[in-house]
Please model this.
Amino acid sequence: MNNVMSGQVSVIPGDVEFLNSPTTGEPNRVKVSVRRTASRGNPVATMIARYFGMANTDIGAIATAEASPANAMDCVKPFTIPDKWIEKQTPPWDPDNDTYDAFNNKGVPLANPDVYIPPYNASGAPDPNYTGYRMFPAYPGGPTDVGTMLTIRASTGTNIAPSMYFSLAMTADTGGSDYRWNIANCNHTHYYSGDLEVLEPGAMAGPTSQGIEELIAKDAGARYNPGTQKVDSPYGNHSPRVFPIPLYDPIYYDEGKRNGRTATLKTVNWICFFADSVVGNDVKGIIVPCTGIYDKNGPAPNSALPKTIRLVQ
Model:
């Protein structure tokens, strides 16, 4: 606890309030009042006012912090996987075996297509029917995907599968050496929801597994704790083995592919991933909570998975 004028402030349970956001209604705010008052036995001694009969005085301060949606991420790794959908062909959704199917091989819509609803609509407002990954519940006590085991592997075609990643070029970095470096290290370029992603030629399966192995070696003792749903690491909450993965919009990609447009990947959200191990060219890991960045260059979708803590009052 911080001191004020070399004296400890007083905070009791009634001084801490958990509030809803005035814009989204989410329970994501904490308001804290701190006091040094005579009634609590810790008033602030005065200097000049004591000569006028006031030996001490009461002071206080109030601040409100919010877990706001993040609108940017850094330390992003150069590969992307599809956001989660509602599996209609072979329900329920299976991260190891399903594919996103909305059209047949002639581009005709299926009678019972798989369903994907993005996290926000065209105006940027959150869509309560969002089907994708969730690191935080949509409602108190609701489900999340934290703790989900994922195996990601290089895409072998144009199928959209939960486990299949496309390799990406980051900024001007292209080629296997830069690609591997961007996995094993932190590229501080900011990336945003809505970004169109640039594909790296080739699957980059070898550089991917090599980069992840280098990353794991930097924090070899880190372990996922299922009880706390966090990573236990000497780095605390900043293990290099935890990183954001951009999620691409499966509809946008699939429609482009079917309409003859160059198939384009568009970031719609993020998950954070704890790299657990590498088996052959497969990367195994677990979805974990994480924070993002609040960048003044643009607003954040209210349904963004990563959050950032910021002072709002």
Q: What stands out?
A: The helical segments are 176-184, 205-217, 250-258.
